[in-house]
Amino acid sequence: MGTLQINVLGTCFSIKASEDDEYLKNLLNYYSKIVSEIENSHMLSNQLHVSILAGIMLCDELYKEKSKNVLNAEKNSNKTSIEIEKKTKEMISKLESVLKNEL
N or C: which end of the chain has fewer CB within 10 A? Predict the structure, then answer.
């Protein structure tokens, strides 16, 4: 169980989570990087808006990654189906050949 002291956008609090301290620190650093990028772009000045946009950007990143994983899984599934079909046809052909020779 880890503890993390969060000090972002003028807000300070701590949390406890089932992940270890190092993992939580890496998450906070990544989030802080996104927040800094938004602040440095001068797109928004309201801290609540910056926080919301950072959350949306992270959700976008996660959604794209999950979508990519689903597409990769579907491609792998299709390849597996094609391989199974090919092997099945080969087995049927061999069985037919053996049966013809026995008749």
Answer: C
DSSP 5: E
Instruction: Indicate the burial class of 10 (C-beta count within 10 angstroms; 0-12, 13-18, 19 or more).
Output: exposed
First to last CA, the chain: 71
pLDDT values of the chain reduced to their tens digit, one per residue, 103 residues: 889 999 998 899 999 999 999 999 999 999 999 999 999 998 888 999 999 999 999 999 999 988 888 877 777 777 777 788 888 888 888 887 877 776 5
Looking at the DSSP bridge assignments, the partners of residue 4 are: 15
Least Cα distance to 24 among 48, 6, 36 occurs for 6
Q: How far is CA 31 from CA 38, 39, 42, in A?
A: 11, 12, 17
d(C-alpha 46, C-alpha 26), whole Å: 25
